[in-house]
Amino acid sequence: MATTRSQPTIAAGVTRQKTGIPLTRAATYLLQRYSLVLLWIIMVVLFLVLLPNSVDLGNASRAVLGQQTPVVFLGLAVITTIAVGEFDLSFAFIYGLAGTTFPALVVLHGWPVPLAILVALAAAVLVGLINAVLVVIVGISSIVVTLGTGSVALGIALLMSDQSNVSGLDPALAQVALGSFLGLPAVFWYGVVLVIVTAYVMTATPLGRSMLFVGSNPNVARLAGIPVRRIRFGGYLVAALLSGVIGIILACGVGGFSTATAQVQMMPALAAVFLGTIAVVPGRFNAIGMFIAAYFLLTGMFGLQLLGLSGWVTNVFYGAALIIAITVSLLLRRRARA
Amino acid sequence: MADESATPPVPRLEVRNLTKTFAGVAVLENASLTIAPGEVHALVGQNGSGKSTLIKLISGVYSADPDGEILLDGEHIGPPIKAKALHGQGLSFVHQDLGLVPDLSVRDNVRVGRHAVNPITRRIRTSEDAVAVSETLEYLRTDIDPSAKVLSLLPSERVAVAVARALQDRTPGTGVVVFDESSRAIPHEALPAFYDMIRLLTSQGTAVLFVSHNLKEVLEIADRATVLRNGRVVETGIPTAGLDEAKLTSLVLGRAAELGDIMESLPPAPRPETVEFVDVCGGRVEGVSAAIRRGEVVGFTGTVDSGLSDLGPLLGGDRRGAGKVKLGGRVVDLARARVVDLLDAGIAFIPADRHDKGVALDLTVEENATLPHLRSRGKPWWTGFKWQRAETEGIIERFDIRPPNPTMPVAAMSGGNQQKVLLGKWLLGTPDLLVLDDPTQAVDVGARHAILTASRQAAADGSAVMVCSAEVEDLAAICDRVLILQDGRIVREMTRPFDADAVLSAVFAVDDAAHALPSAPTPANEA
């Protein structure tokens, strides 16, 4: 009797799996990977309903996607470190350092543009190098080191800008950031290209696989002959370079830089990275997920601003988003292991 | 049949028709068992047989499907089981790692969660605690000082502390104690004391449910056994008196798996080329020189302090040392070689610490299995995907990895299957030298057989295979020669024919002679 009663249980399980193909399974697959996109659409609809004046969807989306924002670049910087098991908090300050150094040298000290760019990038990479040496070689906790170097970088940036906003770069340079393609500014497209490159490197090359193992279990990586230290080291350098580059690009676009606002970018970038782990490759830090999450968050912020909220709401929104994103991504990873 | 005629009035623990389904798939079906007062009842089965699921259902970690029933001394206690109430109801657990905090006193370890407290200030009444603990320890016939720290205790005394915790606030001779793979945390020399303690408990009327991978142990200690296979009970309450290891193994596996068969099916076929170690040193290894022929399996064994646990890591690049390895016309200098150089020379090292060094648990079977081959099979700008899937599926088939899902995170698999992934990862390319460090640690009987066969197969395929292990039966089952280490050097070589007892007594003899001690330490299989 026992066996007859148990038979349907298994049979039911098996048939459900088999007949579930392909529609349900495809739907589950899409839902698992792109639930964030669905959430995005829901959010947009919500805003459309809530907003008193009818908003032109085309204009609104151009306003969101066309923002002069460093979040995508900074998100990539976070991914290159966090994917190899490091936690770099200095990225926003490095961004500020490079973004300030470049216009400060040109405007305040009369340096030629190419040289100023080189020096600004070198400064950014130098901070990354210090991070890498202290964390990877000396072996200090990465959070402590990068908080410290970040603070130093910000201080130096403030010193160089005489503690005020630098402005007055040649308006012709603005094309670097603002030059339009398909109605969207160059900054957006740089982000797209870099996201694709990063996603490719991380999923389809041996380097990406090595990064994955260094981040997941450095001992296993080491015993498989992966140069663990070099990869961790490289993570810090690439992160610093990405942060520096976007600082310079945005300085070009605006014609100057407001140093004090640089650290504001820390929260949205971190939130985008963690929120990105629920999309595309669930449970893993991935560039495309981060990209979707970044614009999801920017849309949310934009909508809140249209509703008349500003100032305090930025902190609350990104802070809450970061915590929710980390919680969800942790739960997802725990479920993947169970 | 024998047990039916001797049916006791009320079983201490009775499990009726417990079923657990996850997402429509039954992982345990209609499991039933009864444990009489004073009985040691063993629960055996491979990883994935539903054994741990059953324990988790009884302990309230999972909740069983509603139609089953769990009775304690005839009283219905679930499902659903209330985990917090279990101890009070008479069911307590001693887990794998014994669950002791080394830094705390015996008293605190025993009383944790059940401290006697002042009702108002909630201050712990240490004197009352101490009395209760002393009573329990006395009952267990040990003279451990309740205020001693656990880390100062001998292994056998630690076991007593864990058991004392399980017996707290319990009338002597009542209740059920579940030992969930507890003997794994106990070194060989402390096992007899552990078994004595179990017999002491049952002689008073307490029932014991004993979960173990070690079938020998089960036959020694248990009165009856319940065998699970593929989520079903294949035998319940079968008296162990009528069983031997072979019969029990075939019940567990559903087929016979004699370790002795491995040598027969894969007989020695040594080839002329050799791999040579010259004066390998590092850690406790003081200078090991040996030669292993391709096609040969050579075992290394010895006591805990013989340097055995350092030898594998030295050759695998997991520990810095000195010395040379000569293979295939190349000479690798261990003092200077990077891990990559060792890999390029054709050395594959399978570390003892599977979770920390063997596999990345968060990553998939495919990612883990193909990692060592990415450099040779992939291009710097493109790993390629087809060969990865093909190789992974090959490994899954060859080692019978379950479930056969290349994209599953390794963390979701059982220990034996994780070990198979680890083996597959390194055996794929037929290494020149395969170094296995304690390969059968914490795996079930089926996986053990698969792992040992795979090691022998690697030799047949042309690798020189080196097995570092304190499990003399494993060595006897697959090795052509066994080298015995002592104080970091090889002191004796044994050549076939030999059996496990011969190897074990050789280890003892060597140690006895060296230290001139009446009782030599046994080779504990600590990682």
TrEMBL record, chain A:
PANTHER family: ABC TRANSPORTER PERMEASE PROTEIN YPHD-RELATED-RELATED, RIBOSE IMPORT PERMEASE PROTEIN RBSC
GO MF annotation terms: transmembrane transporter activity
Any single Pfam family the record assigns to this protein: BPD_transp_2
Major subcellular site: membrane
Protein keywords: Cell membrane, Membrane, Transmembrane, Transmembrane helix
Cell cycle keyword on record: no
Keyword Acyltransferase: no
Residue stretches spanning the membrane: 34-51, 71-95, 115-136, 143-161, 181-202, 236-257, 263-281, 288-306, 312-332
Organism in which the protein naturally occurs: Streptomyces griseoruber
Subcellular location: Cell membrane
Cellular component, GO annotation: plasma membrane
InterPro entries in alphabetical order: ABC_transp_permease (IPR001851)
Name this protein carries in UniProt: ABC transporter permease
Membrane topology summary: Multi-pass membrane protein
From TrEMBL, chain B:
Keywords: ATP-binding, Nucleotide-binding, Repeat, Transport
InterPro entries (alphabetical): AAA+_ATPase, ABC_carbohydrate_import_ATPase, ABC_transporter-like_ATP-bd, ABC_transporter-like_CS, P-loop_NTPase
Domain of life of the native organism: Bacteria
Cleaved signal peptide residues: none
Pfam families according to UniProt: ABC_tran
Residues in ABC transporter domain copies: 13-255, 270-512
Gene Ontology molecular functions: ATP binding; ATP hydrolysis activity
PROSITE patterns: ABC_TRANSPORTER_1 (PS00211), ABC_TRANSPORTER_2 (PS50893)
The protein's name: ABC transporter domain-containing protein
